[in-house]
Amino acid sequence: MEAGRYEVLAAVGEGASGRVFKARETGGCQRLVALKKVRVLEQMEEGVPAFVIREVGLLRKLEAFDHPNVVKLLDVSVEVENQTPELTLVFEYVDQDLCAFLASVAETGLSRGKIKDIMLQLLRGLDFLHTNMLVHRDLKPQNVLVSSHGEIKIADFGLARIYSHHMALTPIVSLNLGLNWVKVKSHIALRLESN
């Protein structure tokens, strides 16, 4: 990524590992992108944090499939800012996360059809990940993005892991509910089929 290729428009959020910005490409199609700037602290003897290497590696593995319900990693670069190395991940820009989307819903709530559409897209994304032997491990409303066109995209693969059929997976997923994920997925699938 060349310096000056993106014009930062606004700060979107900040986490423990860095900041996210809404930006626009300065040349070509001038599409909107999300820049995730990850601080690589000087006192870190190991270099780039493992979760960043994992996230980039997994997204690079998945990019060949171009799944509509997984956020796309467009570019990666390292820049030095104030003598501190900073890794920049460039993602497709998606308007909001599921939390913001749900907060903007009218008091009457979402229609049954809209709820089914959101869940179907989310399950398609999860099915794609699991079919490709990948477990997200941090699925929450802040990591589910919603575009202005109603497209659902799973994001933030910092805790994700690749698994094999020989690995033991725990049946409990900590989604603040502690529910058996197999029962939840089966229940949702049955409900979608019956409606």
Automatic annotation (TrEMBL):
Entry's Gene Ontology molecular function annotations: ATP binding; cyclin binding; cyclin-dependent protein serine/threonine kinase activity
Reaction catalysis annotation: L-seryl-[protein] + ATP = O-phospho-L-seryl-[protein] + ADP + H(+); L-threonyl-[protein] + ATP = O-phospho-L-threonyl-[protein] + ADP + H(+)
Pfam families: Pkinase
Domain Protein kinase, first and last residues per copy: 6-195
Residues that hold ATP according to the record: K36
Class of the enzyme per the UniProt entry, highest EC level: transferase
Keywords, ordered alphabetically: ATP-binding, Kinase, Nucleotide-binding, Serine/threonine-protein kinase, Transferase
UniProt-listed GO biological process terms: G1/S transition of mitotic cell cycle; regulation of G2/M transition of mitotic cell cycle; regulation of gene expression; signal transduction
SMART domains the record matches: S_TKc
UniProt-listed Enzyme Commission number(s): 2.7.11.22
Cellular compartments per GO CC: cyclin-dependent protein kinase holoenzyme complex; cytoplasm; nucleus
Family: Belongs to the protein kinase superfamily. CMGC Ser/Thr protein kinase family. CDC2/CDKX subfamily.
Family matches, as PANTHER family: CELL DIVISION PROTEIN KINASE (PTHR24056), CYCLIN-DEPENDENT KINASE 21 (PTHR24056:SF164)
UniProt-recorded name of the protein: cyclin-dependent kinase
Organism: Scleropages formosus (Asian bonytongue)
